[in-house]
Amino acid sequence: MKRVCDIDFSRSIQGKSPFTLVIFGGSGDLSKRKLIPSLYNLYSLKRLHEGFNVISYGMPGMSTEEYREVVRSSIDTYYKRVERGDLEEFTGRFHYISGEFHEESRYREILDLHRDLSKEDVQLVYYLAIPPVFAETVIKNLGQDFLRESGYPRKVVMEKPFGVDRESAGRLNEVVLKVFREEEIYRIDHYLGKETVQNILFFRFGNSIFEPLWNRNFIDHVQITAAESIGIEHRGKFYEGAGVVRDIVQNHVMQLLALVAMEPPADFHADMIRDEKLKIFKSIRSMNEKDLGENLVKGQYGEGDEILAYREERDVEEDSNTPTFMAGKFFVDNWRWAGVPFYIRAGKRLREKVTEIYIQFKQPPLKLFGDECNEIVPNGLLISIQPEERISFRLNSKYPGSENYPHPVEMEFNYKQLGTYDNLDAYERLILDCLRGDLTLFARQDGIEAMWEVADPINRYFEKVDTTSLPNYESGSWGPEEAQDLLFRDGRCWRISDNCIDMEEV
Ligand code: BG6
Fold this sequence. Notes:
By secondary structure, the chain is α/β, with parallel strands linked by helices. It has 14 helices and 14 strands.
């Protein structure tokens, strides 16, 4: 058969031009766990331009030499890849300036150091790896005349959550737009950089067999699970103010929902895709007080086997009302999806780490296989995002033998089958895209505000839920019982749960 497209991995994406990356919060959790290891892998793979430097700006007082120790220890702890470039050469590119985020005058040191390190036209990429409360202050300071007039090409990368609600996100956006042009703003949601997440669109729009079925006529319901087995780690302060909705649902889970539900874009241009996703966020049915009570479940983890309850974690109030779990039933009120429930659940300290989308199709219209098998297992399409990276489809076939028993079988595509591929992880991919100026996998402000419009009523409702009911799930379980009931009530169950064994076969 003719090969349609020869993939030349030597032409993989490269950061095309030299740059200075300025990380605000360079000694924080995100930098240590994700940014530094990602940069090191890109460096080891020779995917970064040789003329790059990193300036870290942060509050802990330390020298550049001490900061380079932080970089080494981050790589020791979190770097798990095979490729290992020259570590000393790599750490030698890191520089540290200690300062408070509001200290206007210290920002001049950033510019001076950048000038010392690089030639004239080197781009400045500001990365805000800091809690959202500091974002406005840093952006305002980046708007100081001496920085704006320095003439360097520049970009800003902003981490989620963008604001804490619709209003603050709008305000933050106004501030950012006073300093940067829209095309200089990279709002990162690392889920969009995951290979399996990008594959959702390829799978949907690259196969003519699914798209005709991808609607209310054939799909019974959709489940999205973003379960984590870890707790909040060292992020008590952040998490107390965020909770699961701001941390995971308003961004990662909403993006997954939009990719499943959106219409085909006219082409793969960043704005065309973002336009289609925006329509989905805007079509998610808003809920009144009664709907919120019926369709949402709030959870907070208690103790588990040698595991602390959320309320016992560092920097967490002992009567904290913060949710570490949520489940909910949503509807996308458009022509394609009218009446199809989207069940989502996300949480910390659940049984296992698994992110997946499960699409269950309707039962065939006639039951031809006799009484015993009146309820044949429905067709189900599973898109496993992580840790497994696979897509599998459950069909029914005849069980061999003389009787008429239908039997579920599975067709599967696993990423492992592809052998070597250009497997950058999400942060690596997004850092490269930003350096190259490709906005496709970054969020746009109107989309973010529309996602807050979904999340805000949930947060307001959860704030009112009586704290005495918490904690309401054991660490290492699948969350509160009510999350199971949410589906049982509709005659359905979560694909992975304790009470729905047969579904696990998909
Ligand atoms: C982050 C959240 O955005 O995503 C964390 O702030 C969470 O709380 C993480 O642990 C999960 O990301 P991943 O890629 O491990 O699923």
